[in-house]
Amino acid sequence: MLPIYLSIHLSIHFPFISPPLIYIHLVIHPSIIYLSSHHLSYIHPSIHLSVPLSIHPSVRLIPILSQAKSNEEGLQLIEDMGRLFCDVYLWWLGPFYPILRLVHPNFVAPLLQAPATIIPKDMLFYMTEVGDNLGGLGEGTKWSHQRRLLTPAFHFDILKSYVKIFNRSADIMHAKWQRLASEGHTRLDMFEHISLMTLDSLQKCVFSFDSNCQEKPSEYIAAISELSALVTKRNEQIFLHKDFLYYLTPEGRRFRKACRLVHDFTDAVIQERRCTLISQGSQDFLRAKAKAKTLDFIDVLLLAKDEDGKGLSDEDIRAEADTFMFAGHDTTASGLSWVLYNLAKHPEYQERCRQEVQELLRDREPKEIEWDELAQLPFLTMCIKESLRLHPPVPGISHCCAQDVVLPDGRVIPKGNICVISIFGIHHNPSVWPDPEVYNPFRFDPESPQKRSPLAFIPFSAGPRNCIGQTFAMTEMKVVLALTLLRFRVLPDEEEPRRKPEIVLRAEGGLWLRVEPLRGGQQ
Where do the annotations place heme binding (predicted)? Predict the structure, then answer.
C-alpha cells in the first residue's frame, strides 16, 4: 500500500511527476520503501505541510530524492532565486522535503528574534555525537541554561589572553610559508594551511595544549578534520540522515571511531583539571592560572556556576569543547581564506590594508598585534566584513519551527516545517545590497554608515542563537590577516576557484593563491 499512498499524495504536490514513475522508484529501491515506512511519521508531516506552504513560490528539484548541488552551480541557483523571489520561496529537496528558504532580512527577523523554545534546533546539521550546543544547535531550556554558563568563556578579559596565541600560531604558519617560498613553492592552498593554523590556536585556547600540528601530524587533529569531512558528506546524502542507516556504513563506523578519539582526549583533560581543581580549591586554582596566564576554555567551563551554584557536567563540558574545536576551526579558516582571495583580486585594497598595519607596527619588534590595537585597523576590518558578506563562512542555517511563525506579509510558516535562513541568499540579495557580487569594503565604512537592516549582514547569525564565539573569530581573523599582509603579498591563482558550499563555504579542490615574501616583514 505504501507505494500507492505516496504516489497519490505526490501526484498532487508534484504534478510534473507521474504516479507510475514514483511507484517504479519505490519498487526498484527497497531501501526507499523501508526508509519511508520506518519513518512515516517523519515523512508524512512534510507532505502534509506542503498544502499550507503552497502559498509560497516553489522551486521543485529533480530527480527524486536528490539534494541541491553543493557546487558553484548550486550557489548560482540560489543567487538566481533570490533575484526572482526577493524574500522567501519553497525549495523541494526531493518529494519529501519542502523547505522554506528565506533570503530577506525582514523575513528572517521572526525566526532569528524568536525564543530558543520556538526555533529549537538546526535540523540538517548532523553532529550530535560531536557536541551540539555552542553554535546554537542545542534544544530549548537546556540550551538556554548552558548558554548563560558559556558566556564568561568569551568575555573580553579571557579573549585578551588569546591574542598572543593567535600571533604565535600565525608566526609558525608564516615561517612555513617563507620556507616553502625559498624552495620555489609559492602556490599554496589557503584552506589547508589556515585550517591547521586555526586548529593549532584552538588547541592552545581550549586545552592549553601545544600539539605542534602545523609542523607534524597529530592523531587528534586528523580526527577533527575527518569528522568535518564526514559530517559534510552525511549532510548531503538524504539516506544517511537516520542514525540507524548511517552507522551501518563504513563512513558511519569511521565517524564513531573519530568521535571516540576526540572524546577520549577531551575527557582526559577534563579529568586532570577537575582533580587539580579539587586538590587546590577554586581560589588557589584561579590564582595559579592567572599568574601563569593559562586560563583556558576548559578552566572557565569547570568554574562556571549558575545562580543556584550548579555547574556543567563533564559531558556538557566535553560537548562544548569538542563543538568549539569542530566548528570553530573551519569557520575561521573559511573566513580568512576568502578574505585573502578577495584582497588578492583587489590589490589596491590589499595595499591599503598593508599600509595600515605597517603604520601601526612601525619601529616595533617583534611584530605583534595586541588586543588594544585591533580597533586601530578600521580599513582591514572593513575588508574582512565585506568578504564575510560576499563569502559567508556558513552559507545557511536550518531550523524546525516548534510553532506557527507569522511572516511580515501575513503568510504563516506552519509548525513542524523546516526553514533555511539563507545567509548567502541575504548577502547576495540585490534588493538588500546593490551590486551584490561586487567586492566593495566601503559598504562597511563607519564614517559613512548606510541605512540597512541590522539583519542584512549576519555572517554569525543573529538574535538569541547567534554565534557566541564571533568576537573570538573576528579577533583571530584580524590578527592573522594583519600579520599575513605585513609579511606577504598575496596574488590570485591562474584558475578562478569554484565555490563549494558545505557546512562551511569552501572551494572545489582547495583555494589556491600565490604568496610573495616581503622585505621588512620579519617575524
Answer: 467
